[in-house]
């Protein structure tokens, strides 16, 4: 087999703002690659027996971030999967390094405005956006996290591509030899 048809042996980790499509794209890509898919928020909800919104309200963001770090440590030794951590996962010191190499981090880039449009069509409660001006908060999240998202191995601009094109791009990245910006 050539390197163009062989999948790399690490996790494919999708990062980006809330509403970037990490979970939606992650499920589709995992199916195409024949890999398990894990959404961090869903896994944490299963483990705690509480929704992310409820957990945030009762325990706070710091406790939630600690669960993300613990889950990341656990997954570092797991067989290759497609992972969709929450938008703030990148703010946890050292988590990217826990998964790469061989994991590959892919930033699903979306503007704060497009992310808000996408979220407005969703029924998912986003705890960090539950405030008087969620648009301002989304812009603030982008400003605070942009440099962290830019540490990704790849960038896919999801605003300019169809769902199928994003899926195809991510599958292609899983078969590519050397990380870069796409």
UniProtKB/TrEMBL annotation:
> In the Enzyme Commission scheme, what number(s) does this protein have?
2.7.1.71
Is Amino-acid biosynthesis there in the keyword field? yes
Pathway where it operates = Metabolic intermediate biosynthesis; chorismate biosynthesis; chorismate from D-erythrose 4-phosphate and phosphoenolpyruvate: step 5/7
The function of this protein is: Catalyzes the specific phosphorylation of the 3-hydroxyl group of shikimic acid using ATP as a cosubstrate.
Q: How is the cofactor bound?
A: Binds 1 Mg(2+) ion per subunit.
Taxonomic lineage from the root = Bacteria, Pseudomonadati, Gemmatimonadota, Gemmatimonadia, Gemmatimonadales
Instruction: Provide GO CC annotations from the record.
Output: cytosol
Organism, by scientific name, is Gemmatimonas phototrophica
Q: Where in the cell is it found?
A: Cytoplasm
Entry binding sites for ATP: 19-24, 126
- Keywords assigned by UniProt? Amino-acid biosynthesis, Aromatic amino acid biosynthesis, ATP-binding, Cytoplasm, Kinase, Magnesium, Metal-binding, Nucleotide-binding, Transferase
Major subcellular site: cytoplasm
Q: What are the binding positions for Mg(2+) in this chain?
A: 23
GO MF entry, a single one: magnesium ion binding
Residues recorded as binding substrate, renumbered to this chain, are 41, 65, 87, 145
Which is a GO BP term held by this UniProt record?
A: amino acid biosynthetic process
Q: What is this protein called?
A: Shikimate kinase
Q: Which domain of life is it from?
A: Bacteria
Protein family: Belongs to the shikimate kinase family.
Q: Name one Pfam family in it.
A: SKI
